[in-house]
C-alpha cells in the first residue's frame, strides 16, 4: 500500500447500489498490509453500510469480524463498540450529503447523516471516534475513510475539523471515481472539483495516555497583531476606506492598532511607508492603492 491509492473498480464486495459505498479493495489492502502473514484478532467495521467490509472479511477468511450500522440495529452514538479489536475500519457519512434515512426507510435521531449544523456533526463524529479509539487493544489501529465536501460554495475539510485520537500512522489519499456530483452541471464551475478522499490510520501506542489533536479556528482582527507590516496595514486601511484616503484618515484608524502601541512616530511611519512603497500612489492630496 502507498500513500496514494486509486481503484477504478469497486470490486465485488457488498451492495454496489448502496449510496456512498466504498470499494472493498481499500479495506482488503489495509488488512493485508497490516496482517501480511496473520489475521487480526478482531476486525470491527463501524458504519458498515451495504456490507462491503463483511465480504472482504469473508474473502480473506477472517472469521472474527463484526460489521455494525444503524441499518442492522447498531447505533454508534449510544451503543458500545465491541471490545478486543485490533483493527477497526470506519466510513462515516460525509455530514448530510447522502441521507441514509431514505436508504433505510426509517428515521433515527442519531443518524450522522441527518440534516444538522456542521459543528454538531463534527461533535458527534468526535464522540464516535473517541469511543472507537478507547475500544482498541494496545497496538490496535483505527482506519477512517472520509471525504472533504463543498456546500453552497464553502469548503469543509472534515479530517481537519474533527479531533484526532491516537498517533497518526498514515495519511493516504484515495482518488475518487464515480461521484453523483460528476454528472451535475454547475451554473458556476469556477471551483476545483473534489476528486479525493482521505484515509487516516491511527494507532494506539500507549495504554494510559493518548494524544488528542483538535483544530481551533480563531477570528483575529489584524489591528490586534504585531506580526504585520505597516505596508499591509495601510493596504487594508485603503481597502476599507474604498481606496481613497488622506494621511489623517489612515492615521486615525491605524493609531488604534496594536502595532502603533510600540511606535512613538506613527504618523511619520505611515507617511514614510506611503512614500517608499510603489503600492501606494498620491493623487491630489489623497492616497490610493495601486498594486501591479
Ligand atoms: C458512508 S456510509 C458507509 C458505506 C459503507 N462503507 C459501504 O461500503 O457500503 C455511512 C453509514 O453510516 C451509517 N450511520 C449513520 N449514522 C449512524 C449511527 N449513529 N450508527 C451507526 N451507523 C450510522 C449509515 O447508515 C451509513 O450506512
Shape category:
elongated
- Per the CATH scheme, the topology name of the largest domain is Rossmann fold
Query: Number of DSSP strands?
Result: 13
Strand content: 15-25%
Task: Count the DSSP helices.
Answer: 9
The main pleated sheet reads as: 7 strands, mixed
CATH architecture of the largest domain: 3-Layer(aba) Sandwich
Structural class: alpha/beta
Notes on the structure:
By secondary structure, the protein is an alpha/beta fold. It has 2 domains: 4-213, Rossmann fold; 222-289, Winged helix-like DNA-binding domain superfamily/Winged helix DNA-binding domain (Arc Repressor Mutant, subunit A), CATH 1.10.10.10. Helix content is 27%, strand content 22%. The chain contains 9 helices and 13 strands. The chain has helices at residues 24-34, 52-59, 100-104, 118-135, 158-161, 230-240, 247-254, 258-261, 266-276, and strands at residues 4-5, 43-46, 65-68, 85-90, 136-147, 149-151, 154-156, 164-165, 167-175, 196-203, 212-213, 280-283, 286-289. The chain has a 7-stranded mixed β-sheet. Strands 6-7 form a two-stranded antiparallel ribbon. Helix 1 (24-34) packs across helix 2. The protein is elongated, with a radius of gyration of 26 Å. The mean pLDDT is 95. The structure holds S-adenosylmethionine (SAM). The site of S-adenosylmethionine has 24 residues, from loops. Residues 14, 18, 20-22, 47, 49-50, 52, 69-71, 74-77, 91-93, 100, 110-113 line the site of S-adenosylmethionine.
Amino acid at each position: 500500500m502507498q500513500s496514494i491509492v486509486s481503484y477504478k473498480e469497486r470490486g465485488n464486495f457488498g451492495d454496489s447500489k448502496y449510496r456512498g459505498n466504498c470499494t472493498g479493495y481499500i479495506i482488503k489492502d489495509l488488512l493485508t498490509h497490516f496482517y501480511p502473514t496473520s489475521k487480526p484478532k478482531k476486525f470491527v467495521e463501524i458504519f458498515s453500510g451495504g456490507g462491503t467490509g463483511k465480504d472482504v472479511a469473508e474473502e480473506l477468511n477472517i472469521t472474527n469480524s463484526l460489521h455494525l450500522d444503524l441499518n442492522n440495529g447498531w447505533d454508534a452514538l449510544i451503543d458500545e463498540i465491541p471490545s478486543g479489536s485490533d483493527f477497526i475500519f470506519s466510513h462515516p457519512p460525509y455530514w448530510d450529503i447522502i441521507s441514509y434515512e431514505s436508504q433505510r426507510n426509517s428515521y433515527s435521531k442519531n443518524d450522522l447523516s441527518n440534516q444538522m449544523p456542521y459543528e454538531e456533526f463534527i461533535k458527534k463524529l468526535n464522540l464516535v471516534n473517541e469511543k472507537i479509539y478507547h475500544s482498541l487493544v494496545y497496538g490496535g489501529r483505527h482506519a477512517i475513510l472520509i471525504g472533504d465536501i463543498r456546500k453552497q460554495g464553502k469548503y469543509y475539510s472534515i479530517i481537519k475539523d474533527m479531533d484526532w485520537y491516537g498517533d497518526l500512522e498514515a495519511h493516504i489519499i484515495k482518488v475518487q471515481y464515480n461521484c453523483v456530483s460528476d454528472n451535475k452541471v454547475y451554473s458556476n464551475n469556477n471551483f476545483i472539483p473534489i476528486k479525493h478522499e482521505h484515509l487516516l490510520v491511527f494507532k494506539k501506542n500507549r495504554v494510559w495516555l493518548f494524544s488528542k489533536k483538535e483544530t481551533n479556528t480563531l477570528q483575529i482582527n489584524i489591528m490586534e497583531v504585531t506580526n504585520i507590516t505597516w505596508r499591509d496595514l495601510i493596504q487594508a486601511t485603503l481597502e476599507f476606506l474604498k481606496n481613497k484616503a488622506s494621511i489623517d484618515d489612515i492615521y486615525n484608524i491605524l493609531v488604534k492598532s496594536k502595532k502603533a502601541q510600540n511606535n512613538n512616530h506613527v504618523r511619520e511611519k505611515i507617511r514614510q511607508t506611503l512614500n517608499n512603497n510603489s503600492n501606494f500612489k498620491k493623487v491630489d492630496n489623497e492616497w490610493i492603492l495601486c498594486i501591479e
